[in-house]
Design brief:
Blueprint lengths: L1 H12 L5 E6 L24 H13 L5 E4 L5 H6 L6 E5 L2 E5 L9 H14 L5 E5 L1
Parallel strand pairs: 1-2, 1-5
Antiparallel strand pairs: 3-4, 3-5
Length: 133
């Protein structure tokens, strides 16, 4: 949840130059699988889209400051973006212009913040979208 709080701060700070989207993908530490002792929620492996949507709604209730959507059950977003299990991206004109490292180790809000700050200082094109998967 600490990472979500950091993400919320970025969403607020850079809302004037980017639209933000959070894509909820398959659960990294399901309660009926590879359990994490510090997981804030008890979420079993998603067996249906309804399960995944229910889990995504928990994140949405934390008010991330942006739209929260859920990946399809075939994990197409997760696969396309190589998220496994969290990653930050910036898209501009439908092209990836920033790709953060794979989480948890490579998930660095500070790098994203630096990229957005540099972008803000050089341009104000509103066709930039940030995606967290």
């Amino acid at each position: 949840m600490a990472r979500l709080k950091s993400f919320q701060r970025v969403v607020t700070q850079y809302a004037d130059i980017a639209d933000f989207l959070l894509v909820y993908i398959e659960e990294a530490h399901p309660s009926d699988g590879w359990v994490s002792t510090d997981a804030p929620y008890d979420i079993p492996r998603h067996r249906s889209l309804a399960d995944r949507l229910k889990a995504a709604s928990l994140i949405d209730k934390e008010n991330p400051g942006c739209l929260v959507v859920a990946d399809a059950m075939d994990n197409s977003s997760n696969s396309a973006y190589g998220a496994y299990f969290e990653r930050l991206y910036v898209l501009r004109n439908r092209k990836v212009v920033y790709q953060g490292g794979r989480g948890p180790e490579g998930y660095k809000i500070s790098e994203l913040r630096l990229w957005l700050e540099q972008y803000k200082n050089q341009s104000h094109d509103t066709s930039t979208v940030l995606i967290e998967v």
